[in-house]
Design brief:
- Strand 22 and strand 23 form a beta hairpin.
- The chain is mainly β.
- Strands 1, 11, 12, 14, 16, 17, 18 and 20 form an eight-stranded mixed sheet that branches. Strands 2, 3, 4, 6 and 8 form a five-stranded mixed sheet that branches.
- The two termini are 35 Å apart.
- Bound molecules: copper (II) ion.
- The site of copper (II) ion (CU) has 6 residues, from loops.
Length: 476
């Protein structure tokens, strides 16, 4: 994470065509200069320098959009445009997004703020922005064709409303939605409470990110937009592990993490080493009497969840989607299972004949993480991530919550790997071992003999081809 914010002044390139809304002429005299982000880094929280104070969030591998205060109105300028997003080091995707990145910048306002959003369309087709979860006048809801004309390429529309309800929201197009969301157009929105709120606790760290998914053939750069189930890249804020930054906190911090799902399937998000409670959704804060402890919470399509916990155990705690196919990166092949078959030396020869060919490890999948398989350009290994004890064998929707005693308040930098106190790491047993006592009945005596197959049948588990199913990696 860097503290450097790269701003590019894109002023002058904006043609202002104003929507037929009740926005004053004075306000329209000039637009706020769009702020463009060129880096995929997690930016430090943007401490508000105008308007009501609040405790800002940190957007994972993202940033918050600065605003201009204009006669008591917070003015933001979003630019919808093609972007090149680095999804992980060495892997770039040609996406659509806002202000230089996908997802777009997080918008942070305070309950009761009057907000004016200029949206400039630099895409090759029309768009609109829907402000998911907000209470607003119907004509500001951003559904093209239904509540407004769509924003044609080159045009700028204005949305204006009061952020009436504090909470966790998102924004995305409501025009050619399938294409534009598959291409990465989305962003986070947070409305902070204007005063102490009985159901919204103050926290030390407040993180947010969106769940998104792409189907990018290894060797290519642009997502396939027709894909409904067989995505091959499962990402947080358009980043895949090991490209997702860790969530770095101080021991004892109260931590809030806000997550929204704009993929086509649900994601059970799981935290190690701590229990959390779901304190709110995009519908608002959860009443305290309705909260219960969890270590995994499922986030359905189009839903948002905010979870809270006290980070009271030091360490590097895995934090990931619990669908195991979602913690792997792209495989562009119908990959046969080769468990039990020694293919050393063969793979390279086959690859000469069939450039796409890739075999699963003969001892399971774990050796894929270390295998020196020639990969096509612009893709990264399926499972990877060098940890302090070897390969983490993860990809996709995986990160870590790093809890440290000496992490300073307000410091979000990566503290490196956890140094475990002596005697607290699982270790290799070198003493003698007794044969495990197996149950005599193993093999099943409970089924009447008449119903049993004549011959003993043994099956081999075939994994993971994901044919036609959610979370599959093949099918190309
Ligand atoms: Cu998932």
């Amino acid at each position: 994470m860097t503290s450097r914010r790269d701003f590019f002044k894109g002023a002058g390139a904006v043609g202002a065509a104003v929507a037929a809304t009740a926005v004053s002429k004075v306000a329209m005299a000039a637009l706020p200069e769009p702020v463009i982000q060129t880096k995929p880094d997690t930016m430090p929280p943007l401490v508000p320098n105008s308007g009501r104070p609040y405790n800002p969030v940190v957007t994972l591998n993202g940033w918050t959009l600065p605003w201009r205060m204009n006669k008591g109105v917070k003015e933001f300028h979003l630019v919808a445009e093609p972007v090149v997003r680095e999804m992980a080091p060495g892997f770039k995707a040609h996406l659509w997004g806002y202000n230089g990145q996908s997802p777009g910048p997080t918008i942070e306002v305070v309950e009761g703020d009057r907000v004016r959003l200029f949206v400039t369309n630099r895409l090759p087709e029309h768009t609109s922005v829907h402000w998911h979860g907000q209470r607003l006048p119907n004509g500001m809801d951003g559904v093209s064709g239904l509540t407004q004309q769509s924003i044609q390429p080159g045009k700028t529309f204005v949305y204006e409303f009061v952020a009436r309800r504090p909470g966790t929201f998102m924004y995305h197009p409501h025009a050619d939605e399938m294409t534009q969301m598959a291409m990465g157009m989305m962003g986070f929105w947070i409305t902070h409470p204007k005063a102490k709120h009985p159901l919204i606790d103050e926290v030390n760290r407040d993180f947010c990110f969106l769940l998104n998914a792409y189907d990018i053939e290894p060797g290519s750069y642009t997502p396939k937009i027709m894909t409904m189930l067989n995505f091959n890249l499962w990402s947080w804020n358009s980043r895949i592990f090991p490209g997702i930054d860790s969530l770095n906190v101080r021991l004892g911090d109260k931590v809030r993490i806000r997550v929204g799902n704009l993929t086509m399937t649900n994601h059970p998000i799981h935290l190690h080493g701590h229990e959390f409670t779901v304190t709110g959704t995009d519908g608002g804060p959860v009443p305290k009497t309705a909260r219960w402890p969890e270590v995994t919470t499922d986030i359905a399509v189009g839903q948002m969840r905010q979870v809270e916990f006290v980070a009271d155990e030091e360490g590097d705690w895995a934090f990931h989607c619990h669908k195991s196919h979602h913690t792997m990166n792209a495989m562009g092949h119908d990959v046969p299972t080769m468990i039990g078959i020694d293919h050393r030396g063969v793979a390279k020869q086959i690859t000469n004949l069939i450039p796409d060919y890739m075999v699963m490890g003969e001892r399971g999948m774990a050796d894929m993480a270390e295998m020196e398989m020639p990969l096509p350009d612009n893709t990264i290994p399926m499972m990877t991530g060098a940890g302090p004890f070897g390969s983490v064998e993860m990809g996709g929707m995986f990160s870590m919550v790093k809890v440290r005693r000496d992490q300073k308040a307000g410091d979000y930098t990566d503290p490196g790997w956890y140094k475990h106190p002596e005697g607290t790491v699982a270790f290799d047993w070198t003493g003698s071992l007794a044969e495990p006592a197996r149950f005599k009945s193993e093999g099943g005596q409970s089924m009447p003999l008449a119903n049993k197959a004549q011959k003993e049948i043994e099956v081999q588990v075939r994994k993971p081809t994901g044919q036609g199913g959610q979370g599959g990696h093949s099918g190309h």
